[in-house]
Write a structure and sequence with these properties.
By secondary structure, the chain is an alpha+beta fold. The chain is 41% helix and 19% strand.
Length: 98
Amino acid sequence: MMEQGSDPLVSPIARRVLEHLVDWWPAPRDADALAFGLTGPDGDRHLLTVMEALCDAGLVMYEAIVMRDGAPCFRDTVITQSGFAALQAMQRRHPGRG
């Protein structure tokens, strides 16, 4: 999934999150690791790391993080205009990867 010390903004998980949010646009959605296809014991941890980085960079917004069945859930998650642009740049650099 993600290597320790790697940049979460350029990870395959970040691209997957942005692609899902584009598909859901314009409606905000509640999102957890399963919504982005992240499974296994590290899915929640990887999602927290990536969502924090995406939000800090202004690429996504969410209302709150709540715990649902012991796992983090991001309430009312949407991609920003900057997120659209970042995803397009990722897709130009690495077409077909996701």
